[in-house]
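input
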Amino acid sequence: MKYKPVKDRCCQNKECRDHRKFGEGNIIRHSMYKTRQGRRRRYLCKTCKKTFCSTKGTPYYRLHKSCSDFDEVVQMTVERVGISSISRIKCFSWNTIASWQNLACQVAGEFNDQNLKAPELIELQADEICTFAWTKKKPVWIFVAIEVWSRMWISKVVGSRNYRNIKTLLNQVIDSCRIVNPFIFTTDGFEPYSWAAKNLLGSICSYAQVIKKRRKNRVINVERRLIIGPSQRWDNFCLNQKIPPQSTPHS
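output
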């Protein structure tokens, strides 16, 4: 019996020339097999003659629990429920929950790399967050770059607060975005940002620093400094955003 090609499946063999290519007409139904959750389908790639199951290439592959259990754990993780709490709710071991979370992060990252299109840079913001892992003696910094208009987190770097990590952050931005026109780039007053903007971005952006002064955990003053780029472009941007420019070039 000849089966019709399956359009919504692709070959999962990394050595196959049709690896992860949909709509090539090379995938057909092969057989069925039994699992704890019921019967599942196997598929055959006519190009490499390899078979694979229906969960191959998904986070459910070789999962010894039901798919709904995995989905519930991921959903609770998104809702910021702790690993220990999830372990008690689902009656699973702590290590199982942790490994599922790592698997979900890995699959989500691969999906973003394959499906997200590079946004056009219009307004870029970079900032860093200080956190602690195990001990407060060794703080860990999380650097992030966000394209404001599309609300997309373009890149992130975890490590020390130094020039190298900021350089890595901006290089990721350059590699993953489309730069059609000069864009607006804003950061806080951390000096390595200014160095990186001058040496890596140059004339393709108008770089400004937004410095907030705080007193008793409240913002009492906001100062905006134009570092790179024509003041007219920065003034027009501030006018569109309805904010005071304070665009005197920083000396």
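quick obs: Helices lie at 67-78, 83-90, 94-115, 163-176, 191-201, 231-241.
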